[in-house]
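Sequence in, structure out. Go.
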Amino acid sequence: MSKKTTNSIFTFGLVLMLISCGEDQFQPKPRGYFRIDMPEKTYSLFSSDCPFELELPNYARVEMRPSDQTDTCWFNVAFPRFNARFHCTYLPVDTNFHVLLNEAYAFAFKHELKASAIRREPFAIPQDHVYGLIYDLEGEVATSLQFYATDSTEHFLRGSLYFNSRPNVDSLAPVLAFIRQDLQHMIQTLHWKQEIK
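Output:
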């Protein structure tokens, strides 16, 4: 190869490198979220003065709330690790069953304006006389998960999950799915203690 050809190749390569060394355009990266380590799922029986028992996750704690009425039971199931809690209410059923059902429905659907969808999943455990509905509220809503469980004659248990943070579907999705599994376990282990007269 001649010296002229070698100089031409060298010059071409040098020019190519100088052109390619321009300033890169900034590309914003998508926002990332911290990884959430989920605890191992273990459960313990929750039994109190309320006329039912169920199993709750060991990483949750129960916060009993005082009630003026002796036949009602108000409590929270707090998930401190996730900054969330289920607000739960037990009410006896007498002639007010349809009123309680309508209230549970209205309570879920009052979020209809903000929710992108509201899915309903019925459940039935006939051997324990436990029937009800889980509401999955999708979108930027205050409560993403609600439920009610009843035997339709004497017992009615209702709950709503709230996070103590601004709703962000993307960041809360793994935690919500994790807590939803706990809710399903709670429902599967729900037993009414006694008949109310």
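Check: Residues 72 and 91 are 5 Å apart (CA to CA). The chain has a mean pLDDT of 87.
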